[in-house]
Specification:
This protein is of the alpha/beta class. It has helices spanning about 20, 25-40, 65-75, 95-105, 125-155, 190-205, 210-220, 235-240, 265-280, 335-340, 345, 355-370, 385-420, 430-480, 485-495, 515-520, and strands spanning about 10-15, 45-50, 80-85, 110, 115-120, 170, 185-190, 250, 255, 300-305, 310-320, 325-335, 350-355, 495-505, 505-510. Strands 2-1-3-4-5 form a five-stranded mixed β-sheet, sandwiched between helices.
Length: about 550
Amino acid sequence: MEQNNQKRVYTLYRVSTIGQVEKDDIPMQKEYCHAFIQEKGWTLVREFSEKGVSGFKVSANDRDAIMEIRKDAVAGKFDILLVFMFDRLGRRDDETPFVVEWFVNQGIEVWSAKEGQRTFETHVDKLLNYITFWQASGESIKTSIRTKTRIGQLTEEGLYTGGHYPYGYKLVKNGRVNKRNREVFDLAVDEEEAAVVRLIFEKYVTEGYGTLRLSHFLQENGYHARGGKDFTNTTLNRIVKNVMYTGIIKNGESQSACIEELRIIDDELFAQAQKISQGRIQPHREFPMNMKAHALLAGRVYCAHCGNRLTLTTSSHKCKNPDGSEGRVTRYRYQCHYGVRHPADCGGQTVYTVDRLDCIMDQVIRNIFSQIKTIPEKDLISAQHQKDIDLARAKADRSLETVKTAQKDHDDLKAETIKVIRGESKLDAELLTTLVYEAQEKLASAQAIYDKANEELNELIAGAQNLHDEYHRILSWADLYDKCSFDAKKMIVCQFIKAVHVGRGYQLSVDLNVSFEALQSFSMQEPIPVVPTVLPTAI
């Protein structure tokens, strides 16, 4: 057996934050450990330092230093692993005790310069180790809560905490000072830039401008980003996705409640922008496939005979202008290319004029909007759906009570561990350890049941809310449709109409892109035309 002065030592130093690095916490740990090694008469072989690594958030398996020390332990390159305090090894009560036990099982002594040696010879030793790292885990959780609470307090007050601030805002000094008594900046809306932000959202949502078209539009109309630079696609993408414009400050995972003084865009317009942004990368997109052409149904028209999508084509011919000069006129057509190549298989018309088909659909859309307005909002949710919500809520409430009971049992057993250490408990360590693990399993099971019940309840509530939201969205479309620009009409149609199937003689069937099956389950004066209803060619 080796003498103390021959024992080889590895040391591990760790700090969680950059702030601790700047305060020289690692040199402090190193100095204390060096003095401890000298006092014991050991030999320092190697040192490891981890900077900015959280012992609570980062698993031991993801820490390079721990993995390398483990490898050397197996190879027998050292005898003692020394840390300043045991929480430098980690702060996870479900992992760190087992990391320490692994080293001990490899014949490595695990020491803390402040807390002594950790052993696993008896059940009391195991329980003591569990308590130590349970407390360390609790401290990490409390530290995290304090930090997040403070960030939340700052953001809820609308306070700027540094870094880049979005276009549409400016920095102002209102006399606020930090803990170092230095005056700091606050955010405020820059009205000149905010007007451009509102224009960007309106064009993007209402008229279907993509970021490339928006970039050209802003450049052509003399709008520039900070420093006189042009708005690039990347910049515009960041703008339409930035929740800050609804008055919510977001900093990592923390975000504030809505601060109306910082709001530039309303919630509904922002939500529509996110839906369009996602729709542009999905296969079944709810936005016009061709915004440049003067065609209401571009990308939404299909041949009722062969099922193929009709392509928008153009032709032009010479004409006389009113002043007598020669000009050219362009005509748009929806064409079935499959019908052109395989007339025997298709059997439908090969060409449908845009003016006529769009005129028919314009009248159909107006008629549908008129019928939707007759649906009472109170009838949107069925009695059965409301009953399902009530039952799901009762189930969630019962399972929450079970979770609270299991949590109390678990906490009581943890508190009993202190009495075991002091010799004041009637329970022995082995029995208590078993009871603690059983209580953890019951708590986890109860939590899983509650999570599932709560998820089912939220889905039912969300389904009901979606019907109300859809109803109001369609009513807003109905109000806008008669007075908006053609580009805006196309945006409404692309969200409202999923597909139009047209056959010979302009016979139509319309597939709506909304939940009308649910709406039609209520009493209405007239049914809404849905596939396969055939609409008359009134025009």
